[in-house]
Amino acid sequence: MDLTRIDEKYAPISDEQVDFLNKVVKSKNSHNLVTKVDVTEIYEREFKNCKNETAYCTPYTLLRLLADLVPDIPDKLLYLDIDMMISDDLAELYNKDVSKVEFLAVKEKYGCWLIWPDYFNAGMLLFNMKKIRETKLLEKARELIKTKKMLFADQDAIYRSKTKMSFLPRRYNEQSKFDRKDTLVCHFCKRLLLWPWFKVVNVKQWHIDDVHKYYRCTRFDKDLDEYITLKKEYEGRKV
């Protein structure tokens, strides 16, 4: 999505970047495919200058609320935030049964204590798009985004609009302890550290030194080493 009207950093992914990503994913499995979907026109029609366009995160967090408007979206859709790392076969998560719910999610680490007991983290959502179209979940969420200022815009809108959802164990969206062996999805989201003193940290997986320093997490070092190598390769192609 091109939102350079708001900030020059909000530039869309280029065809050159997509081609490079395709090369990378196909090197792992020839059936893999990266597809670019430009939703600029849909976003501008739905959310331009709305009450939550300058919410706590970038406007790109609102994109999950447009899923039912994008052509060729499958009936089952796994949404993942960019600040997540996967430690094993993701099919285990994708194959969960969603036939009786709008979506599956994991409770929000702090929100389920400070907001509502059933408050979830929207960084990982396994959508049943067929049911969502029936209940108009995302349509209702978009209306809230347009009309009501909310603290956690996209997350709050889905929470308030849901009809029926179910929770998955924390291992499918772990927001703090990355050293558990059975954890499948690690979410590098903002968190509170209590030792040696209270502080808020927002360390992403590409902040590799801080990942080691604050989280003592080394389980993704091999992946992150490959990321550094690929990043240098891509930047070298651009020179």
What does this structure look like?
With 239 residues, the chain is an alpha+beta fold. Among the domains are: 65-173, Spore Coat Polysaccharide Biosynthesis Protein SpsA, Chain A, CATH 3.90.550.10; 190-239, no CATH class. The protein has nine helices and eight strands. The protein has helices at 15-28, 40-47, 91-94, 111-114, 129-135, 137-147, 153-161, 208-215, 221-238, and strands spanning 76-80, 84-86, 103-107, 120-128, 165-167, 185-187, 191-193, 199-201. The strands form three sheets. Strands 1-4-3-5 form a four-stranded mixed sheet. A two-stranded antiparallel ribbon has the order 2-6. A hairpin with a 5-residue loop joins strand 7 and strand 8. Helix 6 (137-147) packs across helix 7. The longest helix is centred in the C-terminal third of the chain and has 18 residues, at 221-238. It is globular.
Provide tags for this entry.
four-stranded mixed sheet; 9 helices; 35% helix; Spore Coat Polysaccharide Biosynthesis Protein SpsA, Chain A; 239 residues; globular; alpha+beta
As laid out across the biggest beta sheet, the strand order is: 1-4-3-5
| Global morphology | globular
The CATH homologous superfamily name of the domain at 65-173 equals Spore Coat Polysaccharide Biosynthesis Protein SpsA, Chain A
Which ranges are low-confidence, i.e. pLDDT below 50, for 5 or more consecutive residues? none
Please report which band the strand proportion falls in: under 5%, 5-15%, 15-25%, 25-35%, 35-45% or over 45%.
5-15%
The average pLDDT value, as a whole number, equals 94
Give the CATH level 1 class of the domain at 65-173. Alpha Beta
Please state the structural category: alpha+beta
CATH topology of the domain at 65-173: Spore Coat Polysaccharide Biosynthesis Protein SpsA, Chain A
* CATH architecture annotation of the domain at 65-173: Alpha-Beta Complex
The first-to-last residue Cα distance is 25 Å
